[in-house]
Specification:
Strand order of the largest sheet of chain A: 2-1-5-3-4
CATH topology of the largest domain in chain B: Rossmann fold
Strand order of the largest sheet of chain B: 2-1-3-4
Helix content of chain B: 40-55%
CATH class of the largest domain in chain A: Mainly Alpha
Oligomer: heterodimer
CATH topology of the largest domain in chain A: Fumarate Reductase Iron-sulfur Protein, Chain B, domain 2
Radius of gyration of chain A: 24 Å
Number of domains of chain B: 2
Order of helices and strands of chain A: EEHEEHEEEHHHHHHHHHH
Strand content of chain B: 5-15%
CATH architecture of the largest domain in chain B: 3-Layer(aba) Sandwich
Amino acid sequence: MTKETTQQVNFRVFRFNADEDYLPYYQNYNMEVTSKEVILDILNKIRDQDSSFSYSRNCSLSSCEDCAVKINGRPTLACKESVKAMIELFGSELTIEPLSKKRAIRDMIIDKSDFLEKYDSIKPYNISNGNEYLKESNEMQELSEIDSCVTCGVCYYSCPVVEVNEDFLGPAAFVKAYYFETGVRDETHRQRIEDLHREKEGLWDCVKCYECAEVCPSGVDPIGKMTKLHNMLYKEGDATSSVATSHIANIKDSIGKHGILAQLGSLSNLSATMKMYKKGKTAKPWSVPASGNLDEIQKLIESSSTSKF
Amino acid sequence: MKKLKYALFTGCTAKQSTPEQMMSTLAVAKKLNIELIELTEASCCGASHLQDYDDFLSLVLNARNIAYAEKHELTMVTICNTCQLNTAMTKYRLDNDEELKAKVNEKLLEVGLEYKGTSMVTHFLYAIIDDVGLDKIKEMVVKPLSQFNIAPFYGCHNIRPSELQNTTHKTSQNPYNPTSLDDLIIACGGKNVDYEQKNKCCGFHAELQAPKTASILAGTAIAGATDGNADWMVTPCPLCHIKLDTQMAESSKAVGRDLKLPVLHMQQMIGLALGCKTSELGLNHHVSEVNFI
């Protein structure tokens, strides 16, 4: 067994009471921590020192969403995260904040209604007429990976698109939609797929930052599931006539013609494209250099394509 | 110094939209005695969108690119974060799934190629840090950038997902507090600016379908660097560069600030410190003008 060690750490803790405070502030708690403690132990200790400090906790087994917080900007479940690991990552000055500062009600407690409403909107439950279906084992494996999602909202409140576009459904809802869309039991199929396709709300607005894959405390890989939902939209012919789908069509066409992309100037933004052109930044679309052995690329597109527009 | 040799996957952007990045890569490689064999046969990596349309096709095309690096028996070096992510992700999946690898190789065999898994795929930033070494860079600096506050902008596909990214280089990075680019700025004699958005998203990959989202993200990043007193920003990703450099007006409008900050490629920064001629670094190709030289 590894020996228990102790260390002095300064915790800079977000404080805010929506009923009393005009602005949030940070309070410092300097304390000795042991190498065996998790962040939730620290929250408990702060509470012991200061009864006005608010946070939520429940299972302490990383099986529920209650204790999610951010440590130096990194969202996590407090009951799971070792203090030692955080010191190794960030040093002995640790900042503890709620998952979303702008939705704070009291200290670590936030109003999650935006997350929960969007999550509910994709109908995160099985809808069937009571028919029985057999599940294949490979399907079970994938579904059980998603089953480990505890709807903690960590991916949702780490998503930069959610931060700037209040209509975006966010990673957790997409993951759950995929769960039911890919499973054999649910019988409403088309309905959810159409919801996922909507502009501003749907999948296409993802910026591909991989924040959700990085933060998920349950290893669900939300963006990986979103890729599979995208694949599903194409396979079933739902991915039609949006800016995003025509962009992908252009990418594929260009790879087929030149091996590389013909133009990366922003065609929807003529003014930016003109500025780039003036600075010699956009190559002329009529003189794109082709990849060597282009015939191989064309042959592979022909033989390996699994989707159709 | 022993001559280092890599297979260079330029990606589409360096060829088509950021000629200055291509020039400065070659200029810096020459200074550092690095030989780059350009993979002229390579195709686009799928630009982080092709896999949404057709995951298998994306794997096959990326595996073909890596197969060419393997033919040269060289590590593949990328100079675009998105190329790095898509290529390294392909390698990771094929190296960990024999069945998938066999399926992909069945297709590659039709054009006389094979993916073996023998070549590493690493970003030029980490080739410099791991193989050249920051001490060597420090030693070679002839024009230290000591008068500049430089804001590093890492780009998502350089640091996330860390489980994958940290298999592609020796210098392990914490995506919530990456240091590689900061360390490079310091090695070049500059002062690194610490600001909240250094590891955040520039919005590039959503700019066609969600221009407002993209511009707010880019604008917030430039504003963060400006408030940190940066004289300029530096990035290892040409896509981040395009978003930040060429759409300063849109970013300004989105966040209600008058933003104006040069955004250099990592290679241009190294080139300046190592004494490359400015004409070799293509500083005239920037939309947000580089006015400090």
